[in-house]
Amino acid sequence: MAKSGREVDAQSVAAFTVLKRAVELDSESRYQQALVCYQEGIDLLMQVLRGTKDDTKKSNLRKQITGYMDRAEIVKKYLDQEKEDGKYHEQIKIEENATGFSYESLFQKYLNETVTEVWIQDPYIRQIHQLYNFLRFCEMLIKKPCKVKTIHLLTSLDEGSGKQQQSSGLQEIKESLQNHGVLLEIEYSSSVHDREIRFNNGWMIKIGRGLDYFKKPQSRFSLGYCDFDLRPCHETTVDIFHNKHTKKI
Fold first, then answer.
1. For residue 4, what pLDDT is reported?
2. Rounded distance, CA 177 to CA 44, Å?
3. What range defines the domain where residue 30 resides?
4. If DSSP states are collapsed to H, E and C, what string results for the chain?
5. Phi (first) and psi of residue 93, to 5 degrees
6. Is the domain of 143 the same as that of 231?
7. What pTM was estimated for this model as a whole?
8. Which of 43, 35, 42 has its CA nearest to residue 72?
9. How far is CA 20 from CA 15, 25, 60, 161, 230, in A?
10. Does 233 lie in the same domain as 174?
11. Does residue 183 lie in a domain region?
12. pLDDT for position 1
């Protein structure tokens, strides 16, 4: 079914909005995010091209698409070489009270069908909200396109009144993951301090605050209680690296 002119115009606006963001990210040397936006914007622009009847407009669109595709290919080759050399590093600064940084928004671009094993090192998976954070992270991992089979968690043991709560909470998560065909291996260490997440496709993410960077919601019925893209964050820094020879923590 042919699209109306209004629909094509709306898609065109959406495409160029995404591509404008791609150029901004590119100029800031945030190449991985820029590549994602280039790819998404090009796909949208291809849809606009298919719905355009005017030959002059079609010719101009083809030229623009070619230009963006050429730049995206250069960025992709640069990133591939950086990964190959083990030099890739990107830093994202999450400002105080910033939103839009759910686990899906932050990690999804690094997850694909090659991810089968994940290592998580975080000393603070103890309190109820931290256990829920870890559960939410695990939920993301079992969704497509991932094919995660094993999750390794290295954390510290709560030696206080929350010990039973931590133990039972992690056991419930372990059993729930098992029902989805995923093995959760839990290890405790009193000397663990660093926070990092590794995927066996080579990506490593270090978050200053670990998984616990979300602020407490204002109430049970406030925006952001369920959708963490709407949840304000604490200030923290996210460092992203790539090494094709990813090793266990």
1. 57
2. 36
3. 2-85
4. CCCCHHHHHHHHHHHHHHHHHHHHHHHCCCHHHHHHHHHHHHHHHHHHHHCCCCHHHHHHHHHHHHHHHHHHHHHHHHHHHHHHHCCCEEEEEECCCCCCCCHHHHHHHHCCCCCCEEEEECCCCCCHHHHHHHHHHHHHHCCCCCCCCEEEEEECCCCCCCHHHHHHHHHHHHHHHHHCCCEEEEEECCCCCCCEEEECCCEEEEECCCCCCECCCCCCCCCCCCCHHHCCECCEEEEEEECCCCCCC
5. -100, 120
6. yes
7. 0.72
8. 35
9. 9, 9, 17, 52, 23
10. yes
11. yes
12. 45
- pLDDT less than 70: residues of the chain: 1-8, 244-249
* Spatial CA neighbour of 126 closest among 178, 152, 164: 164
Q: Are both 67 and 124 inside the same structural domain?
A: no
- Alpha carbon of residue 115 to chain centroid: 13
For 61-87, the pLDDT digits (tens) are: 999 999 999 999 999 999 888 877 778
Tokens found for residue 197: 């997440």
Find, among 189, 194, 188, 197, the residue nearest to 246 by Cα.
197
Residue 248 lies in a domain: no
